[in-house]
């Protein structure tokens, strides 16, 4: 029984460390720019096809790990989602030239105003 307890404790300490070490290695590889432009392009295309922001018809191009977004949207949050998508795919930098429509900006401002009034 004592041996079983020791074995369980050893396994519980070893497994998380091994998982964290693997995660750290993958994370550092991405941050060191080891993701090729073609890999980055393919990853973003795949993510964009599965995402709600794919319907906005955004265009992007990749050069030296830098992703540049172009297009327009009627949803303020889609601009930020595009940036997060590129960063998650391994982009070293993101240039977001997506234009948010005036109607979307007005809607967001109205929502913020309502939230501020509700707080007071």
Structural overview:
The protein has 120 residues and is of the alpha+beta class. The protein folds into 2 domains: 1-32; 35-119, Histidine-containing Protein, Chain: A (2-Layer Sandwich), CATH 3.30.1340. The chain has helices spanning 2-31, 37-50, 76-89, 102-119; strands at 59-63, 66-73, 93-100. It has a 3-stranded mixed beta sheet. The model is unreliable at 15-30 (pLDDT under 50).
SSE layout:
Blueprint: H1 2-31, H2 37-50, E1 59-63, E2 66-73, H3 76-89, E3 93-100, H4 102-119
Parallel strand pairs: 2-3
Antiparallel strand pairs: 1-2
Overview in brief:
With 120 residues, this protein is of the alpha+beta class.
CATH class value of the largest domain: Alpha Beta
How many structural units, i.e. domains?
A: 2
- State Rg: 21 Å
Sheet having the most strands? 3 strands, mixed
What is the beta-strand fraction? 15-25%
Structural class: alpha+beta
């Amino acid at each position: 029984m004592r041996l079983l307890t020791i074995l369980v404790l050893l396994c519980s300490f070893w497994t998380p460390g091994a998982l964290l070490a693997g995660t750290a290695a993958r994370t550092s590889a991405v941050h060191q720019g080891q993701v090729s432009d073609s890999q980055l392009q393919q990853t973003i295309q795949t993510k964009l096809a599965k995402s709600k922001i794919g319907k906005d018809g955004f265009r992007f191009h990749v050069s030296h790990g830098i992703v540049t977004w172009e297009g327009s949207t009627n949803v303020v949050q889609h601009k930020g989602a595009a940036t997060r998508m590129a960063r998650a795919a391994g982009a070293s930098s993101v240039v977001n030239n997506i234009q948010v429509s005036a109607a979307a900006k007005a809607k967001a401002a109205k929502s913020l105003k309502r939230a501020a009034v509700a707080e007071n």
